[in-house]
Amino acid sequence: MSVELPATLAGWLRTRSDAQVAALLAARPDVARPAPSDVVALASRLAVPVSVDRALDELDAATLQVLDVVLLAPTDGVEAAELFAALPEVPEDVLSGAIDALTTRALLWGDDVLHAPDPVRRAVRHPAGLGRRAAELRLVLPTDLSAAVAELPADERDVLDRLSGSRPVGHLPDNAGGPATPARRLLQRGLLARIDALNVELPREVGLLLRGDRPYGPPRMRPEPAVVTRDTATLDRRAAGAALETVGRIGELLTLLEEEPAGLLRSGGVAVRDQKRIARTLHVDEADAGWLLELAHAAGLLDVGGPHRDEWLPTRAYDVWREQDLADRWATLVGGWLESTRIPSLVGQRDVAGKAVNALSPDLVRHTAAGIRRGALAALAEYPPGSGLEPDELVDLLRWRTPRRADRLAPVPAMLDEATRLGVLVGGVLSTGGRGLLTAGEDGAADGMRGLLPDPVDHVLAQPDLSLVAPGPLVAELADTLAVVADVESSGGATVFRVSEASVRRALDAGWSATDLHEFFARASRTPVPQALDYLVDDVARQHGRIRVGSIESYVRSDDHGLLSQLLNDRRAANAELRRLAPGVLVSGLGADEVLTVLREAGYSPAGESAGGAVLTRPPARPRALGRKPTTATTAAPRPLTEAELAATVREIRAGDAALSARRGEAVRQVPGVTTAGTLELLSRAIRGGLPVWLGYVDAQGSGSQRVVQPVSLGGGFLQAFDEGRGETRTFAVHRITSVALVDDDAPAG
Q: What is the CB-side half-sphere exposure of residue 58 using CA atoms within 13 A?
């Protein structure tokens, strides 16, 4: 007795085992949420164009070539044996794996004969890189096509050879008024079809003729790139050095923006002048400044804030970050970078209007960025620790693995450079921290880097030339203080700070006294404080505060009348709008803060004064942006389903399918609210026999549903039953049951 083969995708899905349906849902999780009500609903979701495109995008070139054979077949349906004959150069295990991958994802269906669903045919526009048939292009080909092609001159044949490769569509050159181009002559010969004013397409028949005995093109085998190896200990040491450098730079950047925020452009992003200022202060080039801004933003440490939300400021998360150990700080940076939807390498490039793209601009957002970044690193993670690939080799491998996404791989080399700067990669090989990042997120990254980075130090080494050398990363409190009393001269493994007249004056302006500074240097330095440093502090302190500024709007007073006369006649202080009120007192219509700024820029050392005559100290505030939740790509692949979720979804699909297969003709139906004897009798019989039933039910909100349940007990007007769809025991009020039928034992359950 012959077995009738399924005629539709839904029919074929019913013949699949629970394990095979679970494998389908695992491979295409977007069709599993919410759980399909039955197999018909599952088949409908599998046909959604977005789902089909996503599934095709994940296939490698060899698998797509097998699909091309089915799509190009003259009839619907290809036997598996014909696939092996069509691609004789491809190993059998590769072909078998490709067929399995396609049927698992329901991109092909059938057992002995493989069929391609119509949505898949529509999604693959040019199977095997061949154009449409001449009839579809409304083109009449020459009667003797072989002879017509053989007689072509070399330039026309070259055009056909190029179009018979991987893309049959070409651009028609604009040569109005000049001699006919090869493409235009081919149009006249009927060997090319015009598809619009600018483009032409090579008919499939011509492409097949030119390909000869390789109608599907050369075999698309997996490339075998040359593997590079590194010593893991050396690799991790170099990664730790890069990590230390990056963490230090981000700390310097945010300290700088804390003191002088960068302005927000109307179009978003940071102005070029602010980027130049940051680069100059940090002693890096402008490209590096843009990269640091983008990295801090991706990690959630930098965002828009201020009174009018028009400045780029450190966020509240920065205060937590700076108190963490170095490994955790690094993990925050690389975690934000990995999941970022932005491409920092586009900073400075020209947009379609010819305008350079600014750092932190919305124009840098690419929702595919996170997937590309993770995919590139995941490919390297498949190699053993200490092994990896050069960038060019990796890009070739990625092009084979996801050929439908090949046009998105342009940023990969820049992304690999960023990973190297972060310490995720070293010479094309993943560091231990980089592997941890991929497998366990930020916690794994921190664990992989912990022990390789030095512990923060709580001291500096004072030098006779007024420099302070930090022999490692500093604890947050010491770093904060040094940011006030000294300037960074160079950074790296050991940071060099320079104490100058300006930095000492800055500390005095912030409320420090000369005694405070002497005590700080003596406490923070492991080497004796040089006399030159003590002298510098005392000299600047003697000058500081000889002039006092208050509000009238504001006044300036000093016991040194000669100094006030000098100030009043100094052109550099003209912007302070000063006038003499009395001996020793000048007044201004400007506020005290503005007068202080003008006089300091003119080279004087004024101090603020309170209404009571005391020196007014204004410790610098710590402006903060509110911050934001970490952003992730909205088009990222759906979250994989757990084993429990897969089992529950399959169970629900089977239950719904069984409900459709129940013998509706034998169903006992009733009016809601009225319990019939037939309902009770059928439910009792199901309980005695342990039989599943198809149950119609209306809940308290009036919503009707149909489900397959396994009755357990009946009493007190309630039915206890195991809901096959939800995988749990539920209670049903008998008076809300609208219909009952025994599930047909002969109906297919799979």
A: 17
Measured CA distances, 525 to 459, 519, 594 (Å): 6, 10, 36
Q: Given this model, what pLDDT does residue 234 score?
A: 94
Q: How far apart are CA 399 and CA 414, in angstroms?
A: 16
Which one-letter amino acid corresponds to residue 95?
Answer: L
- Tell the burial category of 80 from Cβ atoms under 10 Å away from its Cβ (0-12, 13-18, 19+): middle
Q: What is the pLDDT of residues 176-226, one digit of tens each?
A: 656 788 888 999 899 999 998 889 999 999 999 999 989 998 999 999 999
Going by C-beta distance under 8 Å and a sequence separation of 6 or more, which residues neighbour residue 698? 672, 704, 705, 736, 738
- The residue ranges of the chain whose pLDDT is under 70 are 1-4, 175-178, 492-493, 550-551, 611-622, 628-637, 659-676, 725, 744-750
Beta bridge partners of 495: 470
The token duo for 370 is: 């996170």
Task: Judge whether 547 and 604 are in contact, CB under 8 Å.
Answer: yes
B/e letters for 100-137, b = 16+ CB within 10 Å, e = fewer, are ebbbbbbbbbbeeebbbbebbeebbebbbbbbbebeeb
Distance CA 313, CA 707 (A): 56
Q: What is the pLDDT of residue 675?
A: 58
Q: What is the pLDDT of residue 522?
A: 92
Neighbours of 198 (CB within 10 A): 11
Structure tokens at 254: 């945010």
Per-residue pLDDT, 598: 86
Contacts of 442 (CB under 8 A, 6+ apart): 328, 331, 332, 334, 335
- Rounded Cα–Cα distance for residues 76 and 362 (Å): 47
How far, in whole angstroms, is CA 360 from its chain's centroid? 15
Distance of alpha carbon 229 from alpha carbon 3, whole angstroms: 56
7-36 burial: b if 16+ Cβ within 10 Å, else e: eebbbbbbebeeebbbbbbbbbbbbbeebb
pLDDT at res. 637: 61
Q: What is the pLDDT of residue 175?
A: 67
Euclidean distance between CA atoms 236 and 248, whole angstroms: 18
> Which H or E run includes 97?
helix 92-104
Would you put residue 237 in left (φ > 0), alpha (ψ -120 to 50) or beta? alpha
- H or E element, residue 661: helix 643-661
C-alpha span between 625 and 463 (Å, rounded): 37
Residue 227 is classified by DSSP as E
Helices (H), 270-385: 272-282, 286-298, 316-321, 326-339, 369-381
Burial letters 347-380, b for 16+ CB under 10 A, else e? beeeeeeeeebbbbbebbebebbbbbbbbbbebb
